[in-house]
Amino acid sequence: MAVLEELEPQEVFHYFEELSQIPRGTFNTKAVSDYCVKFANDRGLEVIQDELNNVIIKKPGTEGYEESEPVIVQGHLDMVCEKTEVSDHDFEKDPLDLYVEDGFVKARDTTLGADDGIAVAIALALLDSDTIPHPPLEAVFTVDEEVGMGGAGGIDLTPLKGKMLINLDSEDEGTIIAGCAGGLSFCMNLPVGRKQVTGDCLEVTIRGLKGGHSGMEIHHQRGNANKLAGRLLNRLNQNMDISLAEVQGGAKDNVIPSACTFTIVVHDSVKAEMIIENMENVWKQEFGEDEPELEVIVTKTENIEKSVMSDMDMKKVIFFINNCQNGVYGFSRSLKGLVETSDNLGVVTTEENKISFVFLIRSSVSSKMEEMKEAFISWAEFLGGTYELSGAYPAWMYKENSKIRPIVAEVFEKVYGKTPNISTIHAGLECGLLSGKKPELDCVSFGPRMYDIHSVNERLDIASTWRMWNIIKEVLKECK
Question: Distance of alpha carbon 191 from its chain centroid, rounded?
């Protein structure tokens, strides 16, 4: 018996569960792409699959809609792969372990992949239906959205005839998204020299933070484990002699890191552990109930010889992690309360001869994103490091004269009995890249309610999914 087969809408959750059986982390999308191609071939639908694994599926309009303007429905095939520290889940081969609890669909000890599997499931259910009235449909499934939007950046949109595009990659139910921030990934590499020291080795792990999406949840001021590590290292270095061996934290630039581990060698481990315990208590007071699972774990190995960074390079590393910009940098001056510019220190990795820091910079104003980029370049030059820029994507600018947005707004008002909130968001959406390739595209984005995406607490609201299913059916019915 399928776990979700009794949930409504059954047709949507059927495909969501099938997708959840296919490993589909970013850059591992061949299998799920082939699944979509087979789906189309089995139903005699026109399908295009490119070398990146993007898929376009076309379906003619139903009776009375044959000559209507096509509508594009779009989502991405890949998902963020995060798991708990105790999980042995292999994202390369294991299906997700779905379960239902308190009105939500969840995945045991891993991310759920509702971002953006639910969009794909809705589109497949539409394409599979023989009873839903709709204009010609063009379903666009992109890949590698979660790391640089490579699929949207490389897809050929010339086969598309539609100009109205519905992106289903939003998780704030009741809000119609009409614009988004742009972004880029910034990686700074600092060279580190090495020496051998002897003393007590402390492996310090900061963990239990909520983490989450570095765009949608950056304004919540959740703890960034990498930044906390920098603060703790700075406190230790100010109060005693330490030697730093390595820092390892986070896995993706678009995820607020929930854990970070650093290794130090000290001669007074009792004093070091007292400083660490005191810092943990300070954090618990500062965060209060916002980070209830925060903890600091120390593992000690006495009197060993270990390779550590040179004193000067250690000071550079601690100085940078402790002082670099992280979080909200500025709010919008035109849309009050909306984050305009931010950055996230998502990944810190240490190798033998270097330490790397990866940030995701976001802004809805191109000049502010340029300012942030230039600031980090200055950091790299000042500290004697190098840098790499990648995964840049443009902002999706609000379109004053939209044909699709009033249709969606009218349907939302019927469902919720009030005028919908029309806004832009700080997270990146593929609409920016797609409308850059095809300027005539008229885009909106909406979707069912999801919580804590990009984290192991990700969950999908079942009732909200039912409402969104009925909304998109009604929107398509009105696009005649």
Answer: 29
Is 10 in contact with 112 (CB distance < 8 Å)? no
To the query of whether residue 146 is one of the catalytic residues in this protein, the response is no
At residue 235, φ and ψ (nearest 5 deg) are -60, -45
| Distance (Å, whole) CA 462 – CA 153 | 32
Shortest CA distance to 320 belongs to which of 357, 272, 267, 279? 357
Token output for 189: 């590499």
Burial class (CB in 10 A: 0-12, 13-18, 19+), 228: buried
Annotated catalytic residue: which of 17, 18, 115, 145?
A: 145
Name which of 169, 31, 145 is nearest 91 in CA terms.
31
pLDDT, tens digit (0-9, with 9 covering 90-100), for 157-176: 999 999 999 999 998 898 99
Could you confirm whether 5 is annotated as catalytic?
no
User: Could you tell me the pTM of the whole model?
Assistant: 0.73
User: Please, are residues 278 and 271 in contact by the beta-carbon 8 Å criterion?
Assistant: no
Q: What is the pLDDT of residues 436-474, one digit of tens each?
A: 899 999 999 999 999 999 889 999 999 999 999 999 999
Cα–Cα distance between 340 and 182 in angstroms, integer? Answer: 10
As given in the structure block, the two tokens for residue 462 are 């079942």
Here the tokens at position 84 are 């708990």
- Name the residue among 253, 205, 243 with its Cα closest to residue 225: 205
What are residue 142's DSSP bridge partners? 76
CB 355 within 8 A of CB 192: yes
Q: Assess contact for 348 and 248: CB atoms under 8 A.
A: yes
